[in-house]
UniProtKB/TrEMBL annotation:
One of its GO terms (cellular component) is glycosylphosphatidylinositol-N-acetylglucosaminyltransferase (GPI-GnT) complex. Pathway: Glycolipid biosynthesis; glycosylphosphatidylinositol-anchor biosynthesis. Belongs to the PIGH family. This is PIGH acetylglucosaminyltransferase. It comes from Rhynochetos jubatus. The lineage of its organism: Eukaryota, Metazoa, Chordata, Craniata, Vertebrata. One of its GO terms (molecular function) is transferase activity.
């Protein structure tokens, strides 16, 4: 297993792990920065200080209880539905592509795309907040039109790796896709 350090579009450090299971099976995982205890403590303290200020003014203990309850519920929602620790791509030439997002709470979200549906994997560009960002996406083949694209599935939406990292993932995907395209001609 090989791990390289990169930066996200926002400048945060990320890591790309590449694991080759076989010639036609590769796993690529982008790890995002872990949740920082300092930022979590700062947000919690700010909410609780504001609640304490309201408690002093209103002399109602429900304000403190509500602040604690809202902070805990907000943290659980953030960890379970928002904060992604790792996004991975498992490319199996004969089967398809599995996209997995691992959340900070331990929950995983997985999508599988059959290789027959995959037209190509490309790096696309978009303008976002007065700058150009790049993203990797899977183009799904239109069943009615073999030359057309029915859907674009963006990858690594949470980690948003920069172009240098995306090029590494792109090359790995293209190696396996090329093997798939040339395999029937060799038989």
């Amino acid at each position: 297993m090989e791990e390289r350090r990169y930066r996200s579009a926002s400048g945060a450090p990320i890591a790309l792990r590449c694991r080759q299971h076989s010639a036609s099976c590769r796993e690529l995982a982008v790890r995002c920065p872990r949740l920082q205890l300092r930022s979590l403590s700062a947000v919690t303290s700010a909410v609780w200080l504001a609640a304490y200020g309201l408690f002093v003014l209103s002399e109602n203990s429900v304000v403190l209880s509500a602040a604690i309850f809202i902070t805990l519920i907000g943290l659980i929602i953030y960890l379970h539905f928002v904060k992604i620790d790792q996004e991975s791509l498992l490319v199996i030439g004969s089967l398809g592509i599995q996209v997995t997002s691992s959340y900070a709470s331990g929950k995983e979200s997985t999508t599988f795309i059959e290789m027959g549906q995959v037209k190509d994997v490309v790096i696309n560009e978009a303008i976002y907040m007065q700058k150009v960002i790049y993203y990797l996406c899977i183009l799904l083949q239109d069943p009615g039109d073999p030359q057309g694209v029915s859907e674009v599935v963006p990858l690594f939406q949470s980690s948003k790796p920069r172009l240098d990292c995306l090029i590494e993932v792109y090359k790995s995907c293209q190696e396996i896709l090329e093997q798939r395209k040339t395999a029937p001609h060799q038989a």
